[in-house]
Design a protein that fits this description.
Structural class: alpha/beta
Number of strands: 9
Order of helices and strands: EEEHEEHHHHEHEHEEH
Number of domains: 2
Keywords: ATP-binding, Nucleotide-binding, Transport
CATH topology of the largest domain: Rossmann fold
Distance between the termini: 32 Å
Number of helices: 8
Radius of gyration: 18 Å
Protein name: ABC transporter ATP-binding protein
Helix content: 25-40%
Largest sheet: 6 strands, mixed
GO molecular function: ATP binding
Organism: Nocardioides hwasunensis
Strand content: 15-25%
């Protein structure tokens, strides 16, 4: 996926993203960090086609057989339907395509719930789940149609520290197994370093690329990786880039 000098200006004149250029390899895990309002979430909307580009282009190396399955999205909140069961929530994208598609996709939905430790909760409702379990349902829904690209907009930001750590490790396991292309938005430098192959550091609005940091830590990674000197060095470098970018634009 190639972002070629992408710019997004809204009708009110606000430039959210300016001259954003990045080449994301197939199967690469890329995190984007930056201050609030720098255009991180706007980038995901541009990838999804929910917002038109002002200038530039976003292209893909390979096209999916079903273009609707090119991307899957995990939001900041699970956005589950309270009156649906867990299984029905995972199957919402299929249900919108008709009963036949829902029946065809149910085995896949149950497989994903089992993979995420939710097999015994398929017939429960969202209010019966913890926040972390609800977010797992959102991840299963995003993976239902086996998208080539998984987009994640601060998916663990509202969770407590222990649940966030567990879901981070779950996500690493999913990525190690499927090697999907992941674009992950976060405010957490530690989270970005632990998960990613590269971390894109953005400037304050208008969002530009301040630096792209290679994360050459060995895989598979664990929570113990956070305590290594190399992890600390990378996290400190990203913090320094963020601080410098904010001073330059102040």
């Amino acid at each position: 996926m190639v972002f070629d000098h992408v710019t997004k200006q809204y009708p009110n004149g606000t430039v959210a993203v300016d001259d954003f250029h990045l080449d994301v390899a197939d199967g690469e895990f890329v995190s984007i960090v930056g201050p609030s309002g720098c255009g991180k979430s706007t980038m995901l909307k541009l990838i999804m086609g929910l917002e038109p580009l002002t200038r530039g282009s976003i292209t893909y190396r390979a096209q999916a057989r079903d273009e609707s399955a090119m991307t899957g999205m995990v939001f900041q909140q699970p956005l589950l339907l309270a009156w649906h069961t867990v299984l029905d929530n995972v199957l919402v994208p299929s249900t919108l395509q008709g009963r036949a598609q829902r029946r065809a996709d149910e085995p896949r939905a149950r497989e994903l719930l089992a993979m995420l430790g939710l097999a015994d909760f398929a017939e429960r409702h969202p209010y019966e789940l913890s926040g972390g379990m609800q977010q797992r349902v959102g991840i299963a829904r995003a993976l239902l149609h086996d998208p080539r690209i998984l987009l994640m907009d601060e998916p663990f930001g509202a969770l407590d520290a222990m649940t966030r750590d567990q879901l981070t490790m779950d996500l690493l396991d999913i990525w190690e197994r499927d090697r999907k292309t992941v674009v992950f938005i976060t405010h957490s430098i530690s989270e970005a370093v632990l998960l990613s192959d590269r971390v894109v550091v953005m400037t304050p609005r208008p969002g530009r690329v301040a630096d792209v940091v290679d994360i050459d830590l060995p895989r598979p990674r664990t929570l113990q990786t956070i305590s290594t000197p190399e992890f600390g060095r990378l996290a400190a470098h990203i913090r320094s880039v963020l601080d410098t970018a904010e001073m330059v634009t102040a």
